[in-house]
Design a protein that fits this description.
Blueprint (H helix, E strand, L loop, with lengths): L1 H20 L6 H35 L4 H31 L2 H35 L4 H10 L4 H12 L4 H10 L2 H11 L1 H7 L5
Length: about 200
């Protein structure tokens, strides 16, 4: 699941960068579309790194991951949060003014967010993925999974609709391995409507 989330974040960052490069001055409709996509992305990435700090890191420490490594990852989260805030400000400018100049500023901020996020993901994946795999059946990892699953149906439906939007077959399979397929179909069908209506068309 962690790998699938990282893939969705990488995918959206690439989409935003491509869209901002192509943005036409005064395109009010496109500015509104990108604002809807950004609102979802901002929420998903913020929730992800906050959830790691609050839920994943304590569980990983219990199974032997060092505090020094977790402190390094948290420092990278802080760097990401600053880049995310900068992108949030510039994307707000695009939404408000729909100008090519604001799109150019947002592009620079998004490229920096992509840089620091990918750098963090690569570090985390190298250090933490082997632990997840080795300890996946441990009580600590199972408890962590249950904690992450404590979300409302609308939040869950939106999350899965987002994570599956453009996912490869391997990424989709990783999600389906975590959530039974019938449940996944129901929750995305019933509660992923907002994403499918407001965000998914942005990338078509």
């Amino acid at each position: 699941m962690n790998k699938a989330i990282h893939a969705a974040v990488r995918r959206d960052l690439g989409r935003f960068i491509d869209a901002l490069r192509k943005f036409k001055d005064g395109d009010r409709e496109r500015a509104d579309q990108l604002a809807a996509a950004w609102e979802n992305f901002d929420e998903q990435l913020t929730r992800h790194h906050q959830g790691e700090h609050e839920t994943a890191w304590p569980a990983l420490e219990q199974v032997g991951v060092s505090r020094d490594l977790l402190a390094q990852l948290d420092a990278e989260h802080d760097t990401m949060a600053k880049a995310l805030a900068a992108a949030r400000t510039t994307m707000g400018g695009v939404h408000t003014f729909a100008s090519a100049a604001d799109a150019e500023a947002a592009l620079g901020a998004m490229q920096e967010l992509q840089r620091v996020t990918v750098e963090h993901f690569e570090h985390e994946e190298a250090e933490i993925e082997p632990v997840y795999l080795a300890k996946k059946d441990s009580p600590e990892m199972k408890a962590m999974g249950r904690e992450f699953a404590k979300v409302g149906p609308v939040q869950g439906g939106t999350f899965f609709a987002w994570a599956l939007d453009g996912a490869t077959s391997d990424e989709s399979a990783a999600i389906a391995d975590t959530v039974p397929k019938p449940v996944l179909v129901v929750i995305t069908g019933l509660f992923g409507r907002t994403y499918r209506k407001a965000v998914a068309p942005v990338w078509k």
